[in-house]
Structure formats: C-alpha cells, structure tokens
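Project channel, design review

CF: Before we commit to the Natrarchaeobius chitinivorans constructs, I'd like one complete example in the thread so the newer folks can see what an input/output pair looks like. Taking DUF3426 domain-containing protein.
RD: sounds good, go ahead.
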Amino acid sequence: MSRRGFESSRCERPGRRRVLAGVGTAVATLAIAGCNAVGGDDSPAYEDGEVGAVDGEDRTPEETVAAAALAETEINESVTPLDSLSIEAHEFVLEDDFRGPTVQGTVENAGDGRIQLVEVRVRTYDGNGEQLGRYLATTGDLDGGVAWAFEVILLESVEDLEGYDVTVLGTPT
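CF: and here is what came back for DUF3426 domain-containing protein:
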C-alpha cells in the first residue's frame, strides 16, 4: 500500500536501448517509405525511341568540345509532369555537323495557361539496355496552345547508341 491507500504499480521509463531501437525502427520505416515514393505518381512517363541503322562518323575533337558546350545535362528539380504538356513527335536525327546524334521533336502546351519552364529529358541506352546518359533541352514561357520544336544533343558515339526514351516536364506559372 502506498501512502494514499493504493498500491502504486511500477511504471518504468523506457531504457536507452529501447528508445534507440524505436528511433531506429522509425527512421528505417521512413526511409523505406521515401524509397517507395520513387516511381510514384509524380514520376515522368517516358516514351521509347529507336536509333535504327545509322551510318555516321564520330565527332572530331573540336566538334566534341562544341557539342559538350551546348549539351544540357543538369536537370531542374522544380519541374514535374503536367497534363497540359505532351510530346507530339520525336525521332533520332544524326546531324552532319558538330551536333552529331540528336533527338528532335515537338512539345505542345495544350492548356490555356503559360508554362514558365519546359524541360525535355532524353535517356540514352546501349544494345544491352544499359543507360549511357541523360540529356535535355529547355525553354521558358510556353504559352497555352503553342508548340515548341526541341533538339537534344547527345554526347555518345553513334556506334554506342541503340535506343532512347523521352519525356517532358514543366513548371506552371
């Protein structure tokens, strides 16, 4: 019996090990949940494209420098898939100048509003399906009902390219 007429049950505070185990479990659960979000609803949908049988020469060292200066590889984290943006057409084109291998096509803003930033992403693949690189083209202020012709410069050698896929993302105003 306690002083007030009832028996106190022993309430232990959780030990340090139990607290650390609980924190570790919570962190692991959150990490797994975060990984599961990759490829979720916010992931862009890519369309496949073929390189086909192309007969072309590699770039000269000077052409390689020029192509590398113009090829975009840094993605913008603020862009997301938008229902109003669509790729109307795309194809692999081997240009007979410093640009060399490219993916060219058109994107349409079928919405009413202006899109502040539009980004076309192209991933390149070899004959084994291994990703070789990721390249992009961007434009700003694409009004509703307007199409944009894009060109993405690829830095791989023509002999290494077997296929690509392409998607479009944007940031609304």
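RD: helpful, thanks. The chain has one domain: 47-172.
CF: The chain has two helices and seven strands.
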